[in-house]
Input
Amino acid sequence: MNQINSKNISLTINKEDFKNINVEFRQNLADFLRELGFNGTHLGCEQGACGACNVLLDGKSIRSCLTLAVQASGKEVTTVEGLNSSEMKTVKDCFIKNNAMQCGFCSSGMLMTTYEIIKLNKKLSRAEIREMISGNYCRCTGYQAIVDAIEDSVNKLNLGSQNG
Output
């Protein structure tokens, strides 16, 4: 790779350190993650509209199709593969139970958004859940099953029942 058009970066992905990886300046983070085997990060629209490429960068949700890999240098990336808490196991079980993972293409983005909802630690109305997932496209479910799964998750995790 031409050193003029590339840079070595180091970052943490799902708590695993990656050091001195040469990337082209123009490579987006989604493609970079997929090249490393993190295939849960999907590329849908490649314009930041569909949410399939959502990842966390230093704990904040970003569209990895709009973020350059070099921008993640020195930072921590969490992909859907890294969402392994007991809370997220409950969420994944609720998604399966409510048939919210039909073709699976939007699932990674929906799970990343649901992770953000869970971190709010409050009970949301169905309208609020719909608002929270409005940045994610789904072509299969009509969103009803996804809203059901998120509502089920919030109830099972007993969110919003304590004054934190």
In short: Residues 20 and 144 are 44 Å apart (CA to CA). Residues 3-82 form a domain with the Ubiquitin-like (UB roll) fold (CATH 3.10.20.30).
